[in-house]
């Protein structure tokens, strides 16, 4: 009973606790939203800043902050300008009535200038700053003249300094106001914006000069608190910058605060350097700086007060939520938080892009399925309907006016229908010629026999044309479906490639760097993108080696030993100066390589051959060899064969499967022109990882594989490209071995010898008699033998020879004593 009661009561208590926790979190979130709404959206923060800036003075008599702040608010947030003005006037009133009136009349004069001349958008910053400068000059000089009834050079200089500072501060505050009035700022801050916001905050804190609690200066506490915040958020550079700027503005406001600049700058530097220690580390940096600079600046008399001020700033800093400081860090370039934010943004963009590409892939796949859906169930019904329409047309032209219509179609419908159908089938099978037996039988049955037979023969032509057209439409639909499916597959692979991230390989990077550095090579950076077997991808920064080839001779062999597979230099970007860094990419070596040799000749020894060939690595670890023979000879045949190979290469490079690529090329060729210009194609695609070869032969002659003393023939039968839009491509697969020699040739070579009856036997015998394995020599010898045997060059001749070899590394592996680890 107790066990049951405990099992029942425990979840209830847990639910209550979770509900209470959720309620507290909701209350805190609601409070934050309310505070943001009151202070940011309604502009209360601008009024508070205006109050402090109205109190701020430089050299105890200059007040350039007030009008500059109002002008910036007026330009950026005109609806909040009255609140800012109220805060400024109230702040100046706490200093003196004279300062308050001067500020008020300066604002009035500024608004008058603004009313007289509305600045254009492209020059509004300059015009507003000029209005601020003129307003302060006019009001301040008028004030001096009214009080002293005279103007001296000193008064003019001080007015000029105040107006000049106000002009500069206006430009600075214009950049800072948007940062205080926008709730969410997604983009990172520029350096100018960071400095501007620091100047604004330091200027605001200048308004607290003179405030104290138990002999502790409020401006000292707030300034050190500000340095702590930015030291943790931005690091040493930002922390020291905040300290220098804040201390400089304080020293301008009060000469007695000059040593504060050294204290704040040193505190920001130490705190930023100890940023990894979080709040405690930054606080320790401020305390150490206070002890050192405090003793140096004011001696041991005031060190206690200075230390108390520091401890109070540290206390405020410790109770500040870390999440708030983290939000500041996200906007400062160079910080880890900013980098993570940018990576998250880039990841989001990447995912959105991949999703869109995947959606397009789904669209193409749906279109492919739609085109591929051919209703086979209705084929029989369609054939019957077409036959009915066919006989209806014949009947309308022959039997409609016949007096025996009623007897033939009403009483003997089946006999008449089957007879006409038989005539149609007989004409179709015998190419429009009807057997005499069928003619005599139909003459006995029908009195208009010649007319009916002639009409059926005529209508049969239209019937067959319609059937052919329908078949072509179905074939075209199937071809389009295959092409769309190929595009969909490529886009789907592309979407998956986009979503592939660089995997974290910190441990492996450190192990590789340590192993190579222990060997004596001072590499500076290692980035591993993939350690997948057969797909290693590593980037490395290597000092300039003066062309000694250290990457190929030393680093690649060491990586081969560490990773347990052959790694080679894929690309190398050498430094342009002796002390620079070379950027090197290492990748897995392919298990096989292909060495090729080509020999060709034009008909009659001409310069332009109708044959074209290509040998290229098409990516995805595959190597393609292709020969195309254009119809006939000369420039037109050369153009057709070249265009065929160009189109094929582009399709293959895009990743489309070979059969679909060939069908697509054929479709383009057949639709591009009405001229009877056709091309043959002989294609071999070799996988460099397992040496498997796929042969696709389009009306091409056989190819041969020489394996020792054995010669293997590879052949397939297909129509030439460009004749019809749809044709089946026979694919022949053959697994090659290291040492195999592949010989592909055009018909000019295979059928070249004029006095040879069995071309295949002749070619095989010549291949067996070869004493060399060099691909180029083999191609040259075959071409030379054909020309010598025939006596002249009767047709375009092309022979391509490829030798399959194991990929033997140029340099042996170098043993490295390190732990081998893969992802």
Automatic annotation (TrEMBL):
Domain annotation PPM-type phosphatase: ranges: 578-802, 593-804
The keyword Transferase belongs to this UniProt entry's keyword annotation: no
Segments traversing the membrane: 44-77, 83-113, 125-143, 163-182, 194-214, 226-259, 280-297, 303-320
GO molecular function annotation: protein serine/threonine phosphatase activity
Annotated signal sequence range: none
Enzyme class: hydrolase
UniProt-listed Enzyme Commission number(s): 3.1.3.16
SMART domains: PP2C_SIG, PP2Cc
InterPro entries assigned to the protein according to its UniProt record, in alphabetical order: Bact_Sigma-Reg, PPM-type-like_dom_sf, PPM-type_phosphatase-like_dom, SpoII_E, SpoIIE_N
Keyword terms of this UniProt record: Hydrolase, Membrane, Transmembrane, Transmembrane helix
Superkingdom, taxonomy of origin: Bacteria
Name recorded for this polypeptide: Stage II sporulation protein E
Gene source species: Peribacillus huizhouensis
